[in-house]
Amino acid sequence: MKFPLLLTFRALAALTVLALAAHAAPAIKIGFLVKQPEEPWFQLEWTFAEQAAKEFGFTLVKIGAIDGEKTLSAIDNLAAGGAQGLIICTPDTRLGPAIVAKARGAGLKLLAVDDQFIGANGQPMTKVHYLGISAGKIGEDVGKTLAAEMKRRGWTPADTALCAVTYDELATAKARTDGAISSLLGAGLPQNRIFKAPVRTTDIPGSLDAANILLTQQPNVKHWLVCGSNDNLVLGGVRALEGRGFTADTAVAVGINGTDCIVELEKAKPTPFFGSMLLSAKSHGYETAKMMFQWIKDGKEPALDTRTVGVLITRENFRQVLKEQGVRD
Ligand code: FCA
What we know:
This protein is an alpha/beta fold. Helix content is 47%, strand content 20%. The protein is built from eleven helices and twelve strands. The longest helix has 22 residues, at 2-23. The relative contact order is 0.13. The structure holds alpha-D-fucopyranose. Alpha-D-fucopyranose (FCA) binds next to β9.
């Protein structure tokens, strides 16, 4: 009865090989690339993504890539390092087709976060998985908040104007300031009291420059309202106003992100920065990382398009809300 015994040994050997192979299945590695690693928003996204990595047991590779060249070479490096997925907030949404081609070539699953890719035809690439904010709605809420503050203070359209610090090259940024403008128009601020200050660079110095140009052109406005595509752009506007003597009594500004204005809200003396629409860094960091992990591990494909909401934080409630959202202890 040698033969069946041999078979048993063979079966055992085969099972052992299978078991070993399962054990040696490549560890899951996910890249998380962001366009502005110095922004608290993106640092928080990473922090939350790391929470997911710890919880689910995968490796997270954090990459800051401020231009196209760095982005494309980072994808090569990730693939060479054995990564299976990439979550990305690209420095330029028009890189979309190049990123898709590279990721596909390297067998990387792809999820765009925050900024949606734009295709060669100038339209959003809706077939690429994306998680972003409900930009128009959040912008409208900024406008409503500004309109309510204007009313509460008894300011009239004749002596009030809007400084919208804009970056229309980026769709999610444009939708935000467009939303704020449409709410203010709806609340009765006339079109000729609405001024755009387009930035060249999406940081505080870039916004300060843009707002200064506008303030020089409009020296007679008594009360300013300020909106912008995120906290930094609004903060640049606030710094420009303060440089011309405006205070919390004569100007009101509302940001978006809620994560890049904490120091501002903590200042003992109120500045014109009234509040911000706090976005969910947890959804953008933890949830995207979890979605990518499950996609790689179990083949569970995420929704093609997910949009998150924002909630207003002000000097009154920011400590409490940030705590509830796990942003601060
Ligand atoms: C864009 C902005 C960021 C953040 C994110 C949700 O990428 O540049 O500041 O608002 O959307």
